[in-house]
Design a protein that fits this description.
alpha/beta; Rossmann fold; 3 domains; seven-stranded antiparallel sheet; binds 6-O-phosphono-alpha-D-glucopyranose
Length: about 600
Amino acid sequence: MCGIVGVISKDKIIKKNVLLDLLKRLEYRGYDSAGIGFMSLGKLRVIKQKGSIDKLRSIVKNDCLGVTCIAHTRWATHGKPNLHNAHPFLSESKTWAIVHNGIIENYLDLKKELGNIKFSSSTDSEVIAQLLEKDSDKKDINKLIRVCNKLKGSFALLCMSVTNPNSLFIAKRKSPIYVMKGKDGIIVASDTICFEGFGKSYYSLEDDEFCEVGLEKIEFYNKKGKKIKKEEQKLESLNYSSSKNGFEHFMLKEIMEEGLVVSNIIKKYSSEPFLSFNECVVRKIKKVVLIGCGSAYHAGLIGARFFEKNTLIDARCYIASEFRYLNNKIDKDTLYIFISQSGETADTLASLELVKNSGGLCVGVTNVMHSTLAKMVDIVLDVCAGVEVAVASTKAYIAQVVVLYMLSKHIEGILKSKSINFLKDVEELRLTLQKNEINNVDKVASLISKKQSVIFIGRDLDYYSSLEASLKLKEVSYISSFACPSGELKHGYLAQVDNTTCVVVIATKIDLLDKNLNNASEVDARDGKIIICSPFKIEDKYTQIKVENITSDLICCLVARKLQYLAYQTSIIKGINPDKPRNLAKSVTVE
Ligand code: G6P
């Protein structure tokens, strides 16, 4: 949520493409507006634009950037997504320029304290620039530390001061920020994805740490202003590529990569099985609690069901933004599993902190092994999905479901004292995914794109698949959609059904097929259009999305893939860019 990047270049002049290409790597964090800040003829200047980075690119001149530069891509939290609220912000007398990711919770109080200053935006962030300008300390880094000590909330901050034009000043609390000293200069960024191709190691700031960096110096401080030493970390290659490999969109590319992702999971977990979950750990587990947001929450719901079915241990999944305020007792014999593609989602991290502080056993299921979540948990499980660029999660969701399935089966094996070859099920899924069959979905997408609302229904795991399918469709096509357990349809939901409605029935279990078809008839009787998503042959009067049949519960991944593609195709028909749907950000670093 908001991406920030800073560059100090040996070349004296930063080429605009270098800076904006780096910023582009962070576009998944928001694209409401974009801007850059730099020194020109001894003055701090900013150039900003409402909308995407590509729009900004068209108004930035190549030679105007200087030695030091900051840039920002925004996902609006406080203040409309317009030009006034675009970052960077300059202080009143233009002595400081700042970019910020996070939320300053006490910004209204701080604004009041500042008195008569004229603010140019309605954001929480601008107050930081003004506070820096008003601070009386002689050293810029001390000003930043003093100002940040007054802030409540979360921030990754990157600042430039007119008195130190060749330095960048950095601060962090809760939102991520990293620094790389490469051979051609310095890069500071919200994600190490910006470092690929520029160096081999980087520094990661912890909460309430500060940094002043120039070409010749890099100094870290704690919140008391004391210098601290930090070790560099090795940059693990993320195999980031800005290429869509011939696909029209990242979303499609990533859906098509799902077979490969499952193959990576098989490779990883056949050589490194779940060693941390040994007999001693597993036999203590009395309950499993899974926690996540968005698609990760839906993967958690499916995971909870796997644990219940396979291990017979009580399992429950919570939305992280709810869990953190429930004041639930944290039990030592409960396994807490935090699921997050990015490993940076604020609510998931807050729930994790809460459990960790109470001594619960915390497991992370994540796609980003250098993320805050990966560093905080006791045991981390890599979902091996590779960089996911499209904002709506596809391949990472499938990967989360597969890893949770394998873990539940591994635990089942230990509890039943028998060896369970769960990799066989995963291999069957891989083979089916790699056939890449996406039959007759295009026709259904065309039908759905004309409807006003879509209801996804199903029973048991198929209901959880409905939740994810509905989320995907609304995220990228903006069609109003929701999910409901098939049996609940007549408890109110049918009131929504008429000839403008489409009902997608997910039915992967033969013993529940008739029940689901009865529900379909109830919709049919009310003129709703029915689509059946199932591996079984259904009567011709219903349009069908045929799903391949496999033996295990991982069939839910095949359903997910078909319905991800349905959402993708619907967004294309509606003329929407599925990689950057409105009002969505990939990494939700604010609560
Ligand atoms: C946003 C993204 C979703 C993602 C959710 C949770 O809403 O658009 O795709 O599922 O955040 O993100 P996480 O990184 O924690 O999985």
